[in-house]
Amino acid sequence: MTRLPFVKLHGCANDYVLVDGFGEGYGSAGLTAPGDREAFARAVCDRRTSVGADGLLLALPPSVAGAHGRMVMLNPDGSEAEMCGNGLRCLGKFLFDRRRVAREFTVETRGGLVAMSVDEVDSSGRATRLTAALGVPDFDRANVPMSGPMTGPSTPALDEPFELANRALRVSALRLGNPHCVVFVDDVERFPVHSVGPALERDPRFPQRVNVEFVQVAGPDLLLLRTWERGAGETLACGSGAAAAAIVARKVYGFPPDVRLKLRGGELAVRWAGDGWPALLSGPAVEAFAGELDRAALYSRAVYREA
């Protein structure tokens, strides 16, 4: 298959190229092997030589009972993410708008099964706002994973001192399908995200790398957020990162269960009732356009990024 159909979607300007793996011909598209997927993700996500995106979504048939679809999400560097909150809403919209799922459905991810719902639709019956239950946060340091003090691998990292290149930070780490490091700062716009973000992402204390959330308190239930995403750099929004920030705000700083988060690309809402409960992420999803990719031309002009 030389020409490959795709759909471009975004959630709060966190944008994705989605390829439909339900239809006939997907197997001949050359995206069934992990290595082929990685190369394709690097090529198609390049904003100068292709469509450009914060990630590649593959909408696939489920492989486990109880799921209505499966999401594979690859970052622009070709690495595969376990979880992606904004990507889930985009994939959910894609499935719902094409009448493959009802208003409540379940998506299989590398991070586990995610229950989803369509909260709002437009006049034509297309989904405009969705909620995803991202799962129960795991604060076990060994599961993040994050190395730490000699008090033991299961000791949680909550508001913990963290020295980084002569900069004193306080960090909180958790796993929410994927690993997160949350840093509260005084002024998120002035904070040097583009130097501290990649340093934290690749710090050896996070052996699988980590998504980094820089958070500023803006009100009793309002946070301002910038995220440095593992394998992607700074994006205009990050769904799982928003949930991680809201969870830490409640766990460490006593925030209420319902938190609003303003990101550079829009606003998201998170509800977390507390320990043992899943984090519910709500926000918009938009289909921008659809098209076809010429795979031969794509690879001939691609500038690959290193993982």
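Second entry:
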Amino acid sequence: MRRQRQAKIVATLGPATSSRDTITALFQAGADVFRLNMSHGSQEDHRKNYDILRELETRFGRPIGVLADLQGPKLRIGSFANDAIELERGQAFRLDLDEAPGDTLRVGMPHPEIFAVIKAGHRILLDDGRVVLEVTRSGEDFAETTVIAGDGLSNNKGLNLPGVALPIAALTDKDRADLDFALELGADWIALSFVQRPEDIIEAHELVGGRAAVMAKLEKPSAIVELDEIVALSDGIMVARGDLGVELKPEEVPGLQKRIIRACRKAGKPVIVATQMLESMITAPTPTRAEASDVATAVYDGADALMLSGETAVGEYAAETVGMMDRIMVVVEQDTLYEPTIASPEATSADAISAAARQVVETVNASAIVAYSVSGSTTLRAARERPEVPILGLTPKVESARRLALVWGVHSVHTQDAHDFVDMVRHAVALAKDEGFAVPGERIVITAGVPFGTPGSTNTLRIARVY
């Protein structure tokens, strides 16, 4: 099951992909990590899908990453007496805390914390930006607005406040319950929605307690203000372009995507680009040329993984979509213009070894880098260097192997740790050959930490010939 590419694919499971056959098809088509979207489906649904994934893992002998994506706070307006209303640009429209059904003049907005921070001049976006209101006057329980854009509104639509940091915690009661469930289940990554500040990540880490890796979903512009600190505190980052695209101008999102990817590359943290990658394939067997270009751009930029949402959760061509993304990635990575940015190593022995491994690969024309790691840190450092050859990530911890399934260039293998130096070389050579990364006569570069089994002690580099 070796992939012929370095970038990874995350596939969201849903109604269209909830059977053993359809999940198997996604995996065989190229999915490396599977997303359990806690915004939809029951916990029993997620448990069933998780069990299928672990069966696949055993059947194919390849670690599979599972990402549990928490819903986060959902800000919505109330309902209308007739379910929907018509609006006219320039008309007055009031938002308040009254729970009574709304009409063409007003509707409830059951979020007192929002009234506490909005002011005249602020804009409120409803229904993913289809309706735009501008605040003219506000108080602790109301906001009077003018309709700037949009001509219709229906029950319980979502709302966004661009440029306003909201006094709302990233984790709701539902999220805490879903987090406990996901950790009990054995999820490898926890994606935290509605991240606004570094403190949100700190709280998540305290609750997770090292049982999974924490991924910050960047979907609020306020998070970008403290991007570097959020990246530093997180184990990974997701560029959630859908919500970012609502709160920012469309023309601002592409540049921001590149900025986030570069920040993650510099810090050596894996980064996912998500939302509407191949959206048209929900109902069509082929993507638009613009979508294919969008996928390619994210790969050229150096993203570790790209994520499919509705395309695989509810799409009519789920496996075909994964296969299409796989083919686009392969073609991009074979392009002579594809030159992944190499991050500057930090002044540590571990980074020095990882940087040297990349240079040695080029000098001796090695076929692969074999990275021994308990926690996965050695393998992450190797991936940060973006070598020209695949990285065989060996770890005695299955949890580390599954987390590394998300990382660029890493073919993750759960195996026993080395007992001594000779055993390390022999084991690395055997696995490189068995996994199809080298043939007899070729060379591999091995990195590890001595003494063996000590996390974070990368200090050894060895060149070995496959026999």
